[in-house]
Hints:
By secondary structure, the protein is mainly α. The chain has a single domain (13-205), classed as Rna Polymerase Sigma Factor, Chain: A (Orthogonal Bundle). It has helices at 13-21, 25-47, 50-67, 77-96, 125-143, 147-158, 163-170, 174-193. The termini are far apart.
Amino acid sequence: xxxxxxxxxxxxxxxxxxxxxxxxxxxxxxxxxxxxxxxxxxxxxxxxxxxxxxxxxxxxxxxxxxxxxxxxxxxxxxxxxxxxxxxxxxxxxxxxxxxxxxxxxxxxxxxxxxxxxxxxxxxxxxxxxxxxxxxxxxxxxxxxxxxxxxxxxxxxxxxxxxxxxxxxxxxxxxxxxxxxxxxxxxxxxxxxxxxxxxxxxxxxxx
Length: 206
């Protein structure tokens, strides 16, 4: 197959990214197919509307295609793509002025110290500043979660480890790990709410 390595193994994201940056459209398509389901679930968890979610996933994929050359490969591709999807969903929320909160328990924010730096020629400096502020708020509030709970959140929702692995890393039972994760998500949601007005997360970008 075209998208397999010489040894016959399926190429990883990093190799596909390199190919895509060299102009290999098939490699980029493979990346999008590989992450379609995950991105769709993420978008729906924010927008709570399947049609809107699919629209913004497609917009995010197009933006990723336009800016794939800017991806520096100093973080995971999934983190970079996740931030594009989240930003697109926040734009949709801002445009529609929905009074909803991000369902943070379903959202993978990405590496804690990573920020998305994409230029959109359709937006002005105020938009770029607002987007940076959103990322800064999220990172700050994640760091504000009590360490005992934050560890469970980072292992599960950032590193995307299975719950069994999370429990083993923390040295506790799976049930206890799930309890900590739930408390961490609730804590983060509560911390974010103080930044949000009636327009939910769109307030952060107003």
